[in-house]
Design goal:
Blueprint lengths: L2 H26 L11 H17 L1 H13 L6 H12 L9 H12 L4 H19 L14 H22 L1 H28 L9 H18 L9 H10 L5 H26 L2
Helix pairs in contact: 1-10, 2-8, 2-11, 3-4, 3-6, 3-8, 4-5, 4-11, 5-6, 6-8, 6-9, 7-8, 8-9, 8-11, 9-10, 10-11
Length: about 280
């Protein structure tokens, strides 16, 4: 068995364990989940968040467009959005790689050379990971670090990453900036979802920084885990682990499921939107 297959199997096991964990918690808190308590206005707000998520997903497509430009693969930005939206929905197929394979096939069918096209996959993973890394120091607040010091570390990491990408290649810097924009928007959409669906304490201003950071790290964990379709199970596991310090566990579970529903609907809307 190759190392690649071993890693993918381990990722699938992790995703499976995450799903089992979430299901076990759902069973334990079945009578305390708040789905039936959400009003029509709240569901409408959640749908609006999904629409916004679909719109900001355009940042991902434009970032891929910049990666193509790095290899002088001359494509129209509208074509990049069209292909990205067409293939991104396939990430929900078990394996978490078929959307990449589909994008490769679509690019080659459009006449793009296979080798540089395949290299954009590597750069995408590196750029997204580097865009998410500055959020990680914020999670140190869960282990006693002050928000001021955590934010300072985050800014230091962000500045270092920006400097590195500027030196490496202009198009890689632009792509990373677009990925960062997507992650910031997604994080604040998660914070908005928290305000809509839970009884979170609005007096705690630090949560407007902490909760988006938790979501971003959880999103990254799901993104880099092979074998987990769209990071399912892995993302929820990280969300539950870090947000339970701020909310009752039943509310955390409700929030994790609503977050998955909202982003899944957003990806679907993005798919149909790009068909236009």
């Amino acid at each position: 068995m190759s190392a690649k297959n071993t890693v993918e199997i381990l990722g699938s096991i992790l995703a499976f364990l995450g799903i089992v964990f979430i299901i076990s918690k759902l069973i334990a808190y079945a009578n305390q989940l708040g789905f039936d308590k959400l009003s029509l206005g709240q569901w409408s707000s959640i749908f609006l968040l999904s629409v916004i998520y679909a719109l900001v997903s355009t940042f991902l497509a434009l970032a891929w467009h910049n990666l193509l430009q790095k290899y002088e693969l001359k494509t129209d930005w509208k074509w990049s959005i069209y292909i990205y939206g067409k293939t991104q929905i396939i990430k929900y197929v078990p394996g978490n790689i078929f959307h990449l394979a589909s994008r490769q096939a679509e690019g080659q069918q459009a006449g793009l050379p296979a080798k540089p096209l395949a290299k954009t996959v590597m750069w995408e993973a590196l750029c997204i990971t580097s865009a998410a890394l500055p959020f990680a120091p914020i999670l140190l607040t869960q282990f006693g670090l002050t928000i001021a010091l955590s934010a300072s570390l985050a800014l230091l990491v962000l500045g270092t990453i920006a400097f590195i990408w500027i030196k490496v290649h202009a198009f890689l810097f632009k792509a990373t900036l677009l990925y960062l924009s997507f992650l910031i928007c997604s994080g604040f959409l998660f914070y908005s979802l928290t305000l809509i669906s839970t009884d979170i304490n609005l007096q705690d201003w630090e949560l407007i920084i902490i909760l988006p950071s938790i979501y971003t790290v959880a999103w990254l964990a799901g993104f880099i885990t092979p074998g987990a379709p769209a990071g399912v199970g892995v993302r929820e596991l990280v969300l539950v682990f870090f947000t339970k310090n701020f909310l009752p566990e039943a509310e955390v579970l409700t929030l994790a499921i609503l977050s998955r529903f909202s982003t899944g609907l957003g990806d679907t809307l993005f798919f149909f939107g790009t068909r236009l």
